[in-house]
Specification:
Elements: E1 2-7, E2 15-20, E3 26-30, H1 35-45, E4 48-53, H2 59-62, H3 65-72, E5 75-79, E6 91-93, E7 98-101, E8 104-110, E9 119-123, E10 133-137, E11 140-141, E12 144-145, H4 154-165, E13 173-176, H5 181-191, H6 196-205, H7 218-221, H8 233-242, H9 250-263
Parallel strand pairs: 3-4, 4-5, 5-6, 10-13
Antiparallel strand pairs: 1-2, 2-3, 7-8, 8-9, 9-10, 11-12
Helix pairs in contact: 1-3, 5-6
Length: 264
Amino acid sequence: MKVFRRFMHNPLRNFNYLIGCEETKQAIVLDPLDGDAILALAEEQGYSIRLIINTHEHHDHIEGNPVVKAATGAEIWAHENAVNRIPDVDRGLKPGDRIELGSLRLKVLHTPGHTPVHVCLLVEAEDNNGVPVLFSGDTLFNACAGNCRNGGNVDEMYDSFVSQLQPLPDETLLYPGHDYMKNNLAFAETREAGNAMISHWQKQVESFAPDDMPVMTLGQERTYNPFLRLHEPAIKHRLQEEFPALGLADRDVFRALRQLRDQW
C-alpha cells in the first residue's frame, strides 16, 4: 500500500488522500475536495483511480466527487445512511465491511460523533506488512477530536473513541482529514501545561509546512492528545478548577474538553 497525502491549501485545511495498490497500480481516492488536483496526482504517480470513498457528507469531503467520477468512472462509496446525503453514491457501507482493491484491504469502522454517518477506514497490520493504518476523517485529529457542531453528537463521539479507537494498537499510523496539529497542540498545552511531549512536538512542527507535517502513531497521540488522556489527573484537576460541579468520569471529561475546544 502506498499513501499519498496532499494538503488542499483551503481555509478548512483539508488533506486529500490517494491510497494505491503498488502491485496493480489501482487506487482509492478518499474525501476528494479538488477533483482536478487528485486526478493530476494519480496521473503523476502512475495510478488508476477505481474507487471514491467519503468518510462523511460535509461539502469539503465530497466536492471533488463529480470530477473524479466523470473522469474515471470510479464508484462512490459511503456509509449506507449517507446515500441520501451524498449525491450519486453507488454503494452503502456497513460497519465491518471490507473494501478490497488489488492488494488493498480496508475495514469500515462506523464512528458517529462528527456526523451520524461518519466512517473511518482501518488497514489492519496483517494487511500492510505489520503496520496498521487509520484514515480517521474528522473523528480523530492530531492532538484533538473532531467537533460535533454540524449535525453531530458529543456522546456519540465519545462512544466512538471508546469502542473503535481505544482498542487500536499504538503503532497505528494516523491519517486525519485536516491539518490542525499546531493549533491543537496549543490547545492541548492549555489543558496539560506540564506535559513535556506537548512542548516537544510544538517545537518539532513549529516551522513545518502542512505538506511536511509528520505522520504520527496512535501511541504518540496518546502522549499528548487530551481526548486520549481523559484519565490524566492534571487534565481533570484543571477542569475541576474551571467547572467545580463537573463529574470526573471519562465521558464528563471528554464533553468538557470538547466544549472548551469549541470556544477556544
